[in-house]
YfhD family protein (Paenibacillus helianthi), 62 residues
Amino acid sequence: MTTQDPQELLRLKHEQDEEKRQFTNFARAVSGHGEVEAGQENSKDRLPDDQNRMKSVENRQN
């Protein structure tokens, strides 16, 4: 196993994050307001999720 400098790893991560950000901006600019992928819709007619609501209530009680 090779030992790598944490500062170098952080620098590389920042470079990758910047490339991802640039690609995301490019993709959004090119696609405009096209179709969204399945599961990405923001539905206004969603029914509330009772199981999650009850879990939230349970968590607040603990």
In short: The two ends are 44 Å apart (CA to CA). Residues 6-31 form the longest helix (26 residues). DSSP finds two helices and no strands in the chain. The CA atoms of residues 50 and 56 lie 10 Å apart.
